[in-house]
What does this fold into?
Amino acid sequence: MLPLKLWRPHLFSGLGLCLGTIAPDLEFILLVERDWTFSHTLAAQSYFTVPLVLFLYFVLVRLALPFWLPRLPQGAPCHFDELLALQVPRDLGGWARVGVSGYIGGLTHIVIDGVTHGNHSGWLVPYLPFLRAPIGLAGGWPLHDVLQVVLSIWFAASACGSWRQIAREHLLWRWRGEAPRRVIPVERAWSRSALGWIFACAVVGFVAGPALRGGIGPVAAIDLAAFGAIAFAFYGFLALPAAELLIRVAWRATVVRPA
It folds into this structure.
């Protein structure tokens, strides 16, 4: 989706597009379930994906990134420091751009799922029966599964290439109309402790995912372990900046409290 941002930077929100592409899957990943209930429908892109994208955009930009950027590696290959240029929209038009971008990302997700899944996410497969044809070179996998792997790799490579261009040319800062600023890193020990916390959360989620459901087969257990690791890591990712914010608020309230 980032090529859209490169094509018309003032029409789209890059972060909104990215969040929109993953939002439909967050219904079951963050709940550590194996399947969705409503998030992959056309209507849900309006009442689920868009509100979720707006919420996540605000939480990430206002709360999470200010905490994590000084604790993450700077420069190549990930260029996390370039995300310092992101800011919360200042007007309704800015929020509309984020919402529309999230909607487009969500629509893209369900359209691609329509031809790459064999379950009820693959809503186009019944109308295109050739997608079920086994592919000999892929060990007999049906074409829709092969497409899922191929398209996932292609989109991931495209996203990485687009982000590399955006970061290398400081485009987020240029689109914002400001000179690039540096992220001031925290002490390495604090950075390692924070990253260790995320790793610990992921490990707990990996174990807790299948344990929470119980009585499941090995394939389901692997799915739930992966979803649990992602979900718990994400919750841990938000928990530290939220805790720091609460501590700061409590400290300020104590300092300014009249004697």
User: Anything to note?
Assistant: Helices lie at 2-7, 14-29, 44-68, 92-116, 143-168, 171-176, 188-213, 218-256.
